[in-house]
Amino acid sequence: MAPSKAAAASSPYAKDERVLCFHHEMLYEAKILDVRKMDDADAHSWQYKIHYKGWKNT
């Protein structure tokens, strides 16, 4: 069964959600800072801005 239009319109991950992200071969804990829907006509794709736990910006 194909996903409904309402389910396709929402991102699989939400802002402020904690996730695990790969960076090369390593897996890191991260927090989603921003979510944007990409303008792809063929697919439902999303862009995420994340912050890796423990990474400090000086």
Descriptive report:
Strands 1-2-3 form a three-stranded antiparallel sheet, with no helix packed on it. The chain contains one helix and three strands; from the N terminus they run αβββ. The chain has one helix at residues 5-9, and strands spanning 18-23, 26-37, 46-52. With 58 residues, it is mainly β. Component of the NuA4 histone acetyltransferase complex. This is Esa1p-associated factor. Residues 13-57 form the MSL3 chromodomain-like domain. InterPro entries: Chromo-like_dom_sf, MSL3_chromo-like. It holds the Pfam family MSL3_chromo-like.
For the terminal residues, how far apart are their CA atoms?
48 Å
Shape from CA axes? globular
Main β sheet profile: 3 strands, antiparallel
Please tally the β strands and state the result: 3
List the uncertain runs: none
Number of discrete helical segments = 1
> Over the alpha carbons, how many angstroms does the gyration radius reach?
14 Å
The overall pLDDT average reads 82
Percent in strands = 35-45%
Structural class: mainly beta
* Residue share in helix: under 10%
Q: Biggest sheet, strands in spatial order?
A: 1-2-3
Protein name: Esa1p-associated factor
InterPro entries: Chromo-like_dom_sf, MSL3_chromo-like
Pfam families: MSL3_chromo-like (PF22732)
Organism: Cadophora malorum
Give the secondary structure arrangement, pairings included.
Layout: H1 5-9, E1 18-23, E2 26-37, E3 46-52
Antiparallel strand pairs: 1-2, 2-3
